[in-house]
Amino acid sequence: MAAKVEAWGSRVGLILAMAGNAVGLGNFLRFPVQAVQNGGGAFIIPYLVCFLLMGIPLLLIEWSTGRFGGKFGNHSTPYILDTMAKGRVWKYIGVFGIFTNIAVAAYYCYIESWTMSYVYHSIVGTFDGMSQADVAGFFNSYVDISQSTTGIPYEAVIFYILCLLLNTWILSKGLGGIEKVAKIGMPLLILFGVILAVRGVTLGTSGASDIFPNANAWDGLNFLWTPQFDSLANPKVWLAAAGQIFFTLSVGMGTIHCYAAYLKEKDDVALNAVSAGFMNEFVEVVLGSLIVIPIAAGYLGLDWVIQNAGFGMAFQTMPYLFQQWGGVLAILAGVFWFGLLFFAGITSSLAMGTPWMGFMSDEFGWSKNKGAWSFGALALIMGLPTVIFYNQGVFDQYDYWAGTVSLVVFAFLETVLFSYIFGINRGWEEINKGADIKLPKFFKYVILIITPLLLGAVLVSSIPDWVNQIKNNDTNNKEWFADNYFAENFEGSGAVSGKVIEVKSDYVKFEFENERKKFDKVSNQVLVEKFNDTKEYKFDSSLNQEAIVKVGDVIKPGDAIAKGNFTNNTLYKFIGRMLLLSLFVFISIIVYVAYKKRVKEGRATL
């Protein structure tokens, strides 16, 4: 006997919960970085086009698909997809909709736990008086579990477990708990974001210093919002824009299907999908672009931002910048910023628990409590390796395979199912059933032709990178265990050699020619200039690791620079991939067991 089916308490709660699912850490951490790395204004037009031609169609597909499957008592993708087409394969394609959520939640909650920790450190004044290098070093110490920034042993692990416990406890309350968090978290997120955005817009040149005399917050805004139409012919920018759509809207994951499965048959999906999508875009494009980049440009200059834009800016740079505001304002800014990130994170991570809970309730009659705590246990088992071996690359493997590849594969397959197997006419009718708005018929043909083509292009173009990841082509130290350590690429192309300028038994420093980007205000273009860069390697004498080069040596990437006993990161990356594969197989087996149970009960779809 299946557990009693839940329902959303209100339309506002549903839209806020769905928007909270989409509005996540990527809105504030990934979007500004992607925009900067892909030319600022050059990124915005492809991004908005991808939102209209891929993002909105995928939202419509997933909302209507979820509601359709919910009519048959299915609340997760294996059997939602199974209701839409004949054949046994679709339930196993639907495994992606559970697998992705558990795997992503496993490492996503680790980032979420950073925000909890940084709220604490902002309140107690940990960053007061720290230099920029000190703040960056603090983060590096935090993610190294052998160190502690508070005196608590294994601090990063403790905060991670606390974060998972909080998520699990809220999930155990069911949709009502998620809805309450969304109703509190989303307004606070927007309030905190608006306060910080206003500061970013009004900062102007007041943050300029002797070290960064040309710092100007408006330079950051102009860079992001001055259109550069030459990007329309750049495939790299289009791929980056399409990739950001997956991150920002949480499409291709299965969470939207699950949320929508709790709708009534005549409940609107068209307006709800569009409302949630545009709320996400407001948070990302408006708030996301008005905080990190303008504030960083206002103190450090636009050139510094272009050269250093990365995921770590939120934790390695922003606390230092907030200290420039002094006293109480610095504390409040830290609480607002990391509080904003926390609410963005938890409203998304809560959504990730619902597909597993819905499936176990539908198929095995599990209670909300049992479903939630089993999800927490799975996330903990999968997530601890990302915490313990963060610096060894396990976190990045999860993010790449579960948080990127899996989304693209599933989104492409579900679009093909919806348009060509379920049928675009039935699908369009399902989208518009009970709709409070009349969607332009244009979107019917976008869903049928343009969206699958875009997704297919992203999928095919990504395959060479999949091969490179599996072959570990990003490193010259491919063996798990080795007697020698080889120099990695000194810069992106791998064609530049480095000259040894300093060497000790456990330390080597190289100098090499590199390139960096600078923004030219006259031409409004990002220019590239050459400069002399350095790179350091440190070795562990306790493992008999010893440098074998001398000052003046010219070393090519792939040349041996040290001898000893080395355990390379490729071992940990392989373990990460095997853990993900094991999780996928485990969920597939459970889906098979559920299928045999359905056959026995006469409920199976053939």
UniProtKB/TrEMBL annotation:
Coiled-coil intervals: none
InterPro entries linked to this entry: Na/ntran_symport, SNS_sf
Membrane topology according to the record: Multi-pass membrane protein
Keywords linked to the UniProt accession: Membrane, Transmembrane, Transmembrane helix, Transport
GO cellular component: membrane
Membrane spanning stretches: 12-29, 41-61, 89-108, 152-172, 184-202, 237-262, 282-302, 322-351, 372-394, 400-422, 442-463, 574-595
UniProt-listed SUPFAM superfamilies: SNF-like
Subcellular location as annotated: Membrane
Classification via PANTHER family: TRANSPORTER (PTHR42948)
Identification of the protein by name: SNF family Na+-dependent transporter
